[in-house]
Amino acid sequence: MARTAVVSGGGTGIGLAVAEHLAAAGDDVILTGRREDVLAAAADKIGKQASYVAADLETVEGAAAVLQHASEHAGRIDVIAAAAGGNTAAKAPADLEGLQRTSWAWTANLRLNVMTAVHLVEGLKPILNDDGRILLFSSIAAYRGSGTGSYGASKAALHPYAIDLSAELGARGITANVIAPGYIEDTEFFGTAMTEQRRTMLIGQTDNKRPGNPGDIAALAAWLASPAAGHVTAQIIQSNGGALAGR
Ligand SMILES: NC(=O)c1ccc[n+]([C@@H]2O[C@H](COP(=O)([O-])OP(=O)(O)OC[C@H]3O[C@@H](n4cnc5c(N)ncnc54)[C@H](OP(=O)(O)O)[C@@H]3O)[C@@H](O)[C@H]2O)c1
Questions:
Q1: Is the pLDDT of residue 110 over 60?
Q2: How many CA atoms are closer than 13 Å to the CA of 101, on its beta-carbon side?
Q3: For the chain, how many structural domains are there in total?
Q4: Is 244 inside any structural domain?
Q5: In terms of DSSP H, where are the helices of 47-149?
Q6: Residue 196 lies in a domain
Q7: pLDDT for res 66
Q8: Which sequence positions are flagged as catalytic?
Q9: What is the CATH number of the domain that holds 22?
């Protein structure tokens, strides 16, 4: 029987790849993110199994909009993939300096990476079926930092959240896991900030000498979301080509 998956960040990059992978396996997918035109294009690409709802998941109102859409379109859901996120640290307003700037960056990253996931998961919990699957998206930065402090810290906050979700919902057959990717290309994550020098350095840190791609993460997410993965829960699973080993 077809399941229904809600994928935040589903209009681009990793979230879109997860949605495409799940839809290709027969699931219905609900895409969410802030930009309606991006979501519409993504849903169009996936086909009739996809619907979308534009929502800012940093807000409770955004989570309520996703709940309403999912309730109306599917009634109940089976998979929550909370891929919305990013690193806002470099986007602080130019007029902020010193501690004001630091405070802005930390608050923004906590809102973008922690609260979008918390709002999505907690908002949808009332309609999540038994044997459901919750996927959160962390980063290699949660283990080794990324130079800003706030991004890695905000991702690390998701690890105990998944462990507590697993404890809370495990008796119903629901699993909660975290995927922590390394460097993944073909996303909007880095915007225009990636240089050839940094790319070479990041690829050089891997054992397989290649960047990750959204399909790598989607394949892992799809397996974690599958019935076969029912005994894997409360885990943080890395996909980084061995980069954390630090070469
Ligand atoms: N790419 C990498 O190398 C990498 C590495 C480690 C971890 N990650 C993590 O992987 C996840 C997916 O990122 P990505 O690489 O696929 O980058 P991406 O293409 O920039 O995807 C981020 C998505 O989040 C959505 N989003 C941002 N703010 C939102 C909000 N307030 N409410 C709802 N949706 C929001 C964006 O859509 P809108 O702008 O339309 O809202 C976008 O679709 C993120 O959590 C990221 O931190 C990425």
A1: yes
A2: 11
A3: 1
A4: no
A5: 60-73, 98-109, 116-124, 141-144
A6: yes
A7: 98
A8: 151
A9: 3.40.50.720
